[in-house]
Design a protein that fits this description.
The complex is a heterodimer of chains A (279) and B (311). Chain A is an all-alpha fold and 279 residues long. Chain A is built from 14 helices and no strands. The chains are: A mainly alpha (279), B mainly alpha (311).
Chain lengths: 279, 311
């Protein structure tokens, strides 16, 4: 399709408007994190600091009750652990549902599909009490295991495994491969795209979760980044606005670096995940 | 089909050693071994939890009190007469409607522009998805300041065109639209990517045929693109309603439910009941009702859009 002039004009008009809509809040937050406490309270608001300084960054990194380093580490470990747990639990189950014949295959899978309709909030209170009884409160276990049986993950991977031609597996069968070997050496290597897409999806979902980490952690050292930022905001918003913004900026840098490196994989992963789920 | 050929090839190979029945059994055993770890976790953290939640909702279950009497439907009756609950539900519905419409429209607009073959397409796609990657913590911290009534940049920009100043997060009538705006900024990336995938799936011949018949851009959009995007719109709105109905972080960080209770949402209220008042039984009832509402909304929406489109 060739783009006409009018077509191009409207396309750029929309894209530039949206780009400004997206960039403006980010750039203002970055810019104000380099200002002094007094400067952010000027009217009219300054969009660029008159003399950029790093006070806010210094404060957010040295303050006793702020542990961005620990919170970031906790978030990364918890989200990585959770993602691995989801893959380890969901991929074999998805393989069985996609390829193996066993009594109850359709029944169990249908049951799982129905449970997608059940919102996770209903499980919060019982699972919180279970964490308490297991003495898992304030530990990584509470952040990793309760949501690991991800039905969506089974559904997504099953859909994908079903598109892999069964001839490939038959060749492995002729070579004497058992079920696990077929799964491990044939199916998984052909499914890296789907696995990466699912990983990105569950990783980001977990990394950004606030509610569950907020209720199952309660000491400064075990908080995750979103919880820590929420606390930072309630403690410092009044007087130290640049400090709070510096916290927001610093905490976003790692994920944005990952995004810029893997942007194609991430956007395509989201499309693949959404596309498969939408079927 | 695939499984049949599978089994046949396999039985041919092993017939000499093992009777066929054992092969079938092997497959069954393997299958259960593959699903067992998943179902172990699923039973503990989902099935058990749902059953316990429903059961708890019939009890007066306070975390600090040892006695937990069975009170039949008292929790549910209390909920029906609970003004705060109704306020929270109404707020959540308003927020969800505005946010889902907003993210869908902005996402569709962005997607329509992004599939045009123009320079910088890749750059814009990367840029426009960027807000979706921020954590709700960073999002809240950034926007609570932008929306500040005294020093916020949004009021500053509005003053150029003679509007404001508005007390976005302090005015009961503005707080939900303000939180929606924040969430639209944050959340339009997902619908955008799904719409891009949907738009790429529409065959180019349909557009060409329409152009040959003399259709203009607007007719093409409303007569071809939109109808063919129906399944995608269904998916985007269903997932949007489900995720935005669960809104919690934005009011928690940006307004603490205020002013008054103007930005209480149902999940925010669930938190208050269960983890501030420690009324776990009543909280379980709130959670059960939230679950029913979400399941009902999903079902309704599904039937509304269920007509499938074939190219």
């Amino acid at each position: 399709m060739k783009a006409t002039f009018a077509d191009k004009f409207w396309t750029y008009a929309i894209l530039l408007t949206l780009a400004v809509f997206v960039i403006l809040p980010l750039s203002i937050a970055v810019s104000q994190s380099f200002m002094t406490n007094a400067e952010v309270n000027d009217w009219p608001p300054k969009l660029v600091p008159s003399s950029p300084n790093l006070d806010a960054f210094e404060r957010v990194l040295t303050q006793q009750d702020m542990r961005l380093d620990l919170w970031l580490r906790n978030s990364l470990i918890a989200a990585t652990g959770y993602t691995l747990a989801v893959l380890v639990l969901c991929a074999p189950a998805a393989y069985a549902f996609a390829r193996l014949r066993f009594p109850g295959n359709n029944l169990l899978f249908g049951f799982l599909l129905i449970t997608i309709m059940i919102p996770p909030q209903i499980t919060l209170i019982p699972n919180y009490l279970l964490m308490r009884d297991l003495q898992w409160l304030d530990t990584m276990n509470a952040l990793i295991f309760p949501g690991a049986a991800n039905v969506f993950g089974v559904f997504l991977l099953r859909q994908f495994f079903m598109t892999i031609p069964s001839e490939l597996e038959e060749a492995a069968v002729l070579d004497g491969a058992g079920y696990f070997q077929r799964f491990w050496y044939v199916i998984l290597p052909l499914s890296t795209n789907a696995m990466v897409a699912l990983s990105i999806f569950v990783f980001l979902g977990h990394y950004n979760d606030l509610f569950w980490p907020f209720i199952v952690t309660n000491s400064l050292e075990t908080r995750t980044l979103p919880v820590g930022l929420a606390i930072l905001n309630s403690a410092y918003a009044g007087q130290f606005r640049p400090t709070v913004l510096a916290g927001a900026v610093l905490s976003s840098i790692p994920i944005l670096i990952v995004y810029i490196i893997f942007q194609r994989r991430i956007t395509e992963g989201v499309m693949l995940t959404g596309g498969l789920a939408g079927r | 089909m695939s499984q049949t050929t599978d089994t046949i090839t396999e039985s041919k190979k092993r017939n000499s050693r093992l009777p066929p029945i054992s092969l079938k059994m092997r497959e069954v055993i393997a299958a259960y071994a593959f699903i067992a770890p998943f179902f172990l976790f699923f039973l503990i953290f989902v099935v058990r939890a749902v059953i316990v939640a429903v059961r708890m909702s019939f009890y007066e279950w306070h975390i600090l009190r040892p006695s937990r009497p069975f009170i039949e439907f008292q929790n549910y009756l209390e909920l029906i007469n609970d003004d705060v609950w109704w306020v929270a539900l109404q707020n959540t519905l308003i927020f969800t409607v505005i946010t889902v419409i907003g993210t869908t429209v902005v996402g569709l607009l962005a997607a329509v522009a992004l599939i045009r073959p123009v320079r910088g397409q890749g750059f814009f796609r990367v840029l426009l998805y960027m807000p979706s990657l921020l954590s709700v913590g960073a999002l809240g911290l950034i926007w609570v300041w932008l929306l500040n009534n005294q020093f916020g940049v949004i009021n500053y920009f509005l003053s150029f065109i003679g509007l404001g100043p508005y007390n976005w997060l302090g005015d009961p009538n503005l707080v939900l639209p303000a939180l929606s705006l924040t969430t639209i900024w944050w959340g339009f990336g997902f619908p955008m990517l799904i719409f891009i995938a949907g738009l790429q799936g529409i065959p180019e011949q349909l557009y060409e045929a329409a152009r040959i018949d003399g259709a203009n851009a607007r007719q093409i959009f409303f007569r071809i693109t939109l109808p063919l995007l129906r399944p995608t719109i269904l998916f985007v709105t269903v997932t949007g309603v489900i995720s935005h109905f669960q809104v919690y972080g934005q009011p928690f960080i940006m307004t603490a439910g205020g002013p008054g209770r103007s930005s209480y949402t149902v999940i925010f209220y669930l938190y208050q009941v269960a983890w501030t008042s420690f009324r776990m039984g009543y909280g379980a009832a709130v959670a059960v009702v939230i679950a029913f509402i979400m399941a009902a909304m999903t079902t309704v929406q599904f039937f509304f859009f269920s007509e499938r489109v074939e190219f």
